[in-house]
Amino acid sequence: MRFISRTTAATTVATLFAVVAFGVAGRAHADDFIVYSPHVIAGQSEIELRGYGITDGRSEYDGERAAELSVAHAFTGWWKPELYLAEYEKEPGAGGKLVGYEFENTFQFTEPGEYWADLGLLASYGHPKGGGPGELEVGPLIEKTVGRFDHRVNLIWERHIGAGAESKTEFRYSYAGTYAVSKAFRPGIEAYGRPDDHAYQAGPVVAGEWHVPHTMGNVEYRVGVLLGINAAAPRHTWVAQLEYEFF
After folding, report:
1. Cα-flanking dihedrals φ and ψ of residue 128, to 5°?
2. Does residue 85 come out as left (phi exceeding 0), alpha (psi in the -120 to 50 range) or beta?
3. Model's pTM, two decimal places?
4. Nearest Cα to 34, choosing from 48, 20, 55?
5. Spatial separation of the C-alpha atoms in residues 158 and 54, rounded to whole Å
6. Which domains does the chain have, with CATH numbers?
C-alpha cells in the first residue's frame, strides 16, 4: 500500500530525530510563529523569508524582533529538507544579532485527501552561532481541507542538547484556519499556545499566492497580527512571511 511504504520510509528517518529529542533536554523557541503544512511537492524548491516584531507597552516585550532566511528542496514526494541560512534575533532593549542555523525536515505521510486528514511530521535541529546547546524539535503536522476552508494543527516538542542544556522538554501548539476567497486572498485566524511560558496568542492573518508569468514559480505571502490572550503573552506580535516556490 502506498500509505504504508510512504509512512515507513518517512518514519524511519523521523524516528532518528525523535529518539534523540526525547532522550535529552531543552526549551522552546519564542519565534516560531508559523503553522506548517504536511504537504510536500516532489521537485519543488523554495526560498523563504519570515519574521515577527512585538509592540507592547511593557519593556520586557517591546521591540523584540526575529527573522529567518531559508532554502528548501523536496527530493521526493514525502521528504523536504530545509536549511535556515541565517537566524536573526533582537531582544528588548538590546541590539540585534545572528543567532544560528537550522536543518529542518518535513515528512508527508499521506496523500492530500486520502484519509480524513492529511498527516506529516516536522523534525529539525538548530545549531547556535558561537557555541552552546543545540535544539531538537519534533511533532506531527495535520491538515484538513473542506471546500474553501483549510485547517492546520501543529503539535511540537522541543529539547536542547549538548553542554549546558536544560533538562526538560517543552511543548507548543498552533492552529491556522483560512478561507480561500481566491488563490491570492485567503483571510483567516492563527492561534499559538506555549504552556511552559503561560503565553497564549491569536489573531487575524491574510495569506495568498500569485503565479509569476512565464515561469514555473509562485510567490506566496502571509501577514497578520497576534493579540495576547493572557497577561504573560505579548500584546501585539506582527508576523510576515514571503516565499518564492519554483521547479
Report:
1. -75, 145
2. alpha
3. 0.86
4. 48
5. 23
6. 30-246 (2.40.128.130)
